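Hi both,

Apologies for the delay on this - the queue was longer than expected. I finally got the guanosine-5'-triphosphate-bound model through. Below you'll find the protein sequence and the ligand SMILES exactly as submitted, and right after that the structure tokens for the full complex including the ligand.
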Amino acid sequence: MNSPLNYRQTHFITSAPDIRHLPLDKGVEIAFAGRSNAGKSSALNRLTDQKSLARTSKTPGRTQLINMFEVRTGCNLIDLPGYGYAQVPLEMKKKWQAALGEYLQKRECLQGLVVLMDIRHPMKDLDQQMIYWAVESQLPVLVLLTKADKLKSGARKAQLLKIREAALAFGGDVEVENFSALKGIGVDQVRRKLDIWFAPELARQQALLEAEHTEQDGLVPDAE
Ligand SMILES: Nc1nc2c(ncn2[C@@H]2O[C@H](COP(=O)(O)OP(=O)(O)OP(=O)(O)O)[C@@H](O)[C@H]2O)c(=O)[nH]1
Ligand SMILES: [Mg+2]
């Protein structure tokens, strides 16, 4: 696949407890959200072909900070704290949910939301809330049914069709794909979607470059 972006070059930028600690709100950001243990960090690692870019864990609730990664200047990926993990102390849960809500509502460079859900337990209340919220904010959504390797091919396809049908009810720009970090299922589809979401930023950078060149050309004195 010919992508304008090389996701393998993605590198860690920073971890922040809330948006005030994130770099300036500019460029294009795509966030990965989902319940704890849904496979967000694993998906980011697979997507970027890196074993440990984002920390993965068997213990849900591991990623407690907003983690930012840069694919290239102005094109960032965000690994958000997982939601809905019952075992986390209430105080901590409240703090994350506040940080998560604030990020989603206030971060203007956020241009796409990837919502990851275990293919065996999709569309829990909080997942649906995330999608509703995104659609309301006119933010396009890519739903990934993760750990697709856990189902046989027939069941996997049936589940995909069922969730695609369910996604229609949201009425917005909501695409659903199967995904497996383990087997590489759906990786091309994710990259294709991210390419589309990042495209305006790449075009903006290109236009800026061209404008600079034109300006420089203009500065060359006439050879008279
Ligand atoms: N079989 C299978 N297991 C997976 C896949 N993706 C993730 N896992 C496992 O699921 C568990 C959670 O994965 P993470 O990527 O850490 O999940 P997360 O959503 O980042 O979790 P938090 O950061 O706690 O919110 C780990 O034990 C992974 O190895 C997959 O595609 N297939
Ligand atoms: Mg994680």
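Main takeaway for now: Residues 40-41, 62-63, 79 surround magnesium ion (ligand 2) (CB under 6 Å).

I'll put the files on the shared drive as well.

H.
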